[in-house]
Design goal:
Shape: globular
Number of helices: 12
Radius of gyration: 20 Å
Strand order of the largest sheet: 10-9-6-7-8-11
CATH architecture of the largest domain: 2-Layer Sandwich
Number of strands: 11
Order of helices and strands: EEEHEHEHHEEEHHHHEHEHHHE
CATH topology of the largest domain: Nucleotidyltransferase, domain 5
Structural class: alpha/beta
Oligomer: single chain
Strand content: 15-25%
Length: 348
């Protein structure tokens, strides 16, 4: 089906037109205003979505060379995320659904990232191990089909992307921190400093990155009075990046080994990290595994992945199942949604 998808869970306003795994348009508007605050300000984010969403809607239709009358269904992210931002997208979607009598598919943002690798590579088979790594989430899943997956591990505190952002702030480098540290790390020595790899050898697939942030903070205070020389910042960036990436790679490949699965998907904003990609690809080649990274566009928050998954839901249940406009939005974290006692999940 020709699906118009809307993603507004955080600070990107995105609308895409998707037909199964064919992306006709995928327009993304990022909110750079948050950089001066060192993080996303929820109220500013929701107001920016309000200002941009109608323009993005028309741009997406124009780039797809189609009209709203050709659209067969609407998809929208309804969880998790910033509540105000989610509501903007959901209400816009409901308005379109009412006006044009279209089915509407509420879709989980994290599930969009889980299946983004299947959008990137249509030859990718089930089962797969999927790791979602972003500013708000770090989690590992066993994915058996488009309507069934199991949560294997979650972050117990800070997500990997959040650790990058906080460490970048400690270094006075700006926000978002991930791309900045990635760029500087290319100029540095990753073995110059040894930062903790928390839970590297734990007997589960959970993560913890708050200790790394704290260790880095005390290291700067003790050794440089919070003002490290500029010439060693690339070494600091490379060393802390290595500490984060080492844990990510160890966990996801160990999960693949334990469950006897050779297909791995790594998605979410942090999956754009060049060191993570290089090290994962090298390890996959050595171990005869297949690793799929979404393109840089599909790694960030985008509507194409939402439309792709909505297409699968529509094919499974039919449009009659999605005529209910009473769905709500939720800001619940992954840990609240998927506690250890109930980690078997369905997209439907």
């Amino acid at each position: 089906m020709l699906v118009l998808a809307i993603e507004s869970s955080c600070d990107e306003t995105s609308i895409a037109i998707v037909n199964e795994n064919k992306i006709l348009s995928n327009v993304i508007s990022s909110q750079f205003v948050h950089s001066k605050y060192g993080g996303v300000v929820p109220e500013i984010a929701s107001r920016a979505h309000l200002r941009m969403i109608n323009e993005i809607f028309h741009t997406s239709l124009r780039e797809a060379e189609t009209s709203i009358e050709d659209i067969e269904a609407i998809a929208v992210t309804n969880q998790p995320g910033l509540l105000g931002s989610l509501i903007v997208g959901a209400n816009f979607a409901k308005g379109l659904s009412l006006k044009y009598n279209l089915p509407i598919v509420p879709t989980d943002h994290i599930e969009g990232h889980i299946y983004s690798g299947f959008l990137q590579d249509p030859t990718l088979d089930f089962p797969a191990i999927a790791m979602v790594v972003s500013g708000g989430h770090t989690a590992i899943f066993q994915v058996d089909s488009y309507n069934h997956y199991k949560t294997l591990g979650l972050t117990r505190d800070d997500a990997a992307g959040e650790a990058f952002d906080k460490i970048s702030k400690l270094l006075g480098l700006g926000y978002p921190g991930g791309p900045i540290i990635d760029r500087l790390a290319k100029l540095g020595n990753q073995t110059a400093y040894n930062f903790p790899r928390t839970m590297y050898n734990s007997n589960d697939y959970d993560f913890s990155f708050s200790g790394l942030k704290t260790s880095f903070k005390y290291f700067l205070e003790k050794n440089f009075d919070n003002n490290p020389p500029k010439d060693i910042i690339p070494d600091l960036a490379a060393s802390v990046q290595s500490a984060i990436v080492d844990v990510l790679i160890k966990k996801v490949f160990t999960a693949a080994d334990e469950y006897g699965i050779s297909n791995i998907v790594i998605g979410g904003g942090v999956s754009a990290n060049s060191y993570l990609r290089e090290q994962s690809m090298a390890k996959a080649q050595k171990e005869n595994k297949k690793v799929v990274f979404p393109s840089l566009t599909l790694s960030m928050d985008n509507a194409a992945m939402i439309g792709f998954l909505a297409n699968k839901k529509l094919a499974e249940l039919g449009e009659v199942a999605f005529r209910n406009l009473s769905f709500t939005c939720s800001a619940n974290s992954l840990r609240a949604k998927y506690p250890k006692k109930n980690r078997v999940n369905s997209t439907l």
